[in-house]
Amino acid sequence: LQVTVTDPRTVALLFQPVLLRCQYQTVALDPPIVTWKYKSFCPTPPGDNGIVTSSGDVPDVTSPCPDAARTVRIVATKQGGVVTLGDFYRGRGVTILGGAELSLGPAAWGDSGIYICTVTSTQDLEGNNEAVAELVVLGKA
User: Fold this and answer.
1) How many CB atoms lie within 10 A of CB 27?
2) For 30-53, how does the pLDDT look when each residue is reduced to its tens digit (9 = 90+)?
3) DSSP code at position 99
4) Which domain of life is it from (predicted)?
């Protein structure tokens, strides 16, 4: 099993459609389970409002912080042709297209963060089953 994200960093404008591309190769005969998980960026230091208004203001995502300091939630899962959305994403234009591409519909303020594409197959346990994509949503061009 080999999972890759073709664009590890995506910058999108508010209210524009977003597509995070995740691809996988497997020797399994049955379709795997694809899960997209969202993690917010690490909290901003005091005095920093955290608002991103231009690409020069992209948050520093290299500083590690524990998951307990972030918002972590399931975006969507896909098994066979059935896509199930996490509670936070119901009612939005969110789905998993093709094999494992996450379509977020129009980007919202809370969409900036780290997205983890995980592919699980009980028939193919070797290799790397996870890839990471960052999304930064800008307020204006």
Assistant:
1) 10
2) 999 999 999 999 987 655 554 554
3) T
4) Eukaryota
DSSP 11-32: EEETTSEEEE-EEEE---SSPP
Could you read off the pLDDT of 100-115 as tens digits, one per residue?
999 998 999 899 999 9
Rg (CA), the chain: 16
Q: How many residues in total does the chain contain?
A: 141
For all residues of the chain together, what is the average pLDDT?
A: 88
Retrieve residue 9's tokens: 């960093």
- DSSP code of residue 128: B
Residues 6+ apart with CB under 8 A from 47: none
Query: Residue 102 forms beta bridges with which residues?
Result: 20, 96
125 three-state secondary structure = coil
- What dihedral do alpha carbons 12, 2, 98, 134 form, nearest 10°? -10
Whether domain 2-42+67-138 has CATH 2.60.40.10: yes
- Plot region of 10 (φ>0 → left; ψ -120 to 50 → alpha; else → beta): beta
Sequence ranges of the domains in the chain: 2-42+67-138
Please name every residue paired with 133 in a beta bridge, in sequence order, or none if there are none. 115
